[in-house]
Amino acid sequence: MFSVTILGNNSAVPAYERFPTSQLVSFNGNKFLIDCGEGTQMQLMRYKIRYSRISHIFISHLHGDHYFGLIGLINSFGLLNRQQDLHVYGPSPLKEIIGMQLNLASTRLPFELQIHPISSPGKLVENEEIIISCFPTDHRIECFGFLFQEKELPRKLSSQYNKPRSYAYCADTRYDEQMLPHVAEASLLYHESTYLDNQHEKAALRFHSTAKQAATFAKKAKVKRLLLGHFSGQYESIHDFEKEARTIFSASENALQGVTYLI
To answer: 35, 65, 138, 172: which is the annotated catalytic residue?
Structure first.
């Protein structure tokens, strides 16, 4: 199974029971965490997800709402006597930040923590089934999106051809068509939509996007489906995000916490 479960869909500040950004990608038994905002552990437990099976964590950028839950999760892994290696990918300063936090607390982990700095776009992980790569987004600080691509299996003459599936995660970003080649024709695209379009100027100033812009991007990328998220805490209801996006791209929907979307 290839799916993504939404753990948090809000922006900087938790609001209206919406948590900061975090998602869990599942692929044939493998678990990959994308971003780890405050409260991610609680959400994993709430939705009864066996997070001990998470092998790789991908941090898009170093704004707190995308990684402040990481050190707590790592510490919990240690307290639960995790044995398998944990691989974390993120902007270069992340290694120093996590190392300092562990050292100041004199924390010794029973497993090997491998932090892989991301400094340029390209392939991060590859095995016999999947390729995970990153690409830059247009944000106030260095920020990366991620692409999960199912590998094409050898074709059999008697079987029907199924195009490999893919999931594209566009983290915090202004509207940026330079990302189009990285996500083109994805089976499912997640694109941040912090604001509604009546605040498009504010969105641009803060290096974020609107629901309308996310839908426009999805349409130009020729993806199959669009998930909207990273909603500003100023909105109590997020209904209008989906409504606005569907005027441009009909296969748009809000990324709802606790919901698993098949890819």
So the answer is: 65
This prediction has a pTM of: 0.96
Q: Would you call 65 a catalytic residue per the annotation?
A: yes
- Domains belonging to the chain, first-starting first, are 2-262 (3.60.15.10)
Structure tokens at 77: 């892994």
Q: Is 52 exposed, middle or buried (0-12, 13-18, 19+ CB in 10 A)?
A: middle
Nearest to 11 by CA among 244, 251, 239, 210: 210
pLDDT at 153: 75
Helix (H, G, I), strand (E, B) or coil at 237: coil
Measured CA to CA in angstroms, residue 23 lies from 41, 87, 91, 216 at distances of 12, 16, 18, 23
- pLDDT per position as a tens digit, 50-90: 989 999 999 999 999 999 999 999 999 999 999 999 999 99
Whole-number Å distance between alpha carbons of 218 and 207? 18
Instruction: Flag residues of the chain having pLDDT under 50.
Output: none
Q: Which residues of 8-34 are buried (b: 16+ CB within 10 A; e: fewer)?
A: bbbbbebbeebbbbbbbbbbeebbbbb
Phi, psi for residue 200 in degrees, rounded to 5: -65, -30
Taking the CB of residue 139, how many other CB atoms lie within 10 A of it? Answer: 21
Per-residue model confidence (pLDDT) at position 42:
97
Q: What is the model's pLDDT at position 161?
A: 66
* Of 245, 151, 150, residue with least CA distance to 190: 245
- The Cα–Cα gap between 209 and 262 comes to 25
The first and second tokens of residue 107, run together, are 């924390």
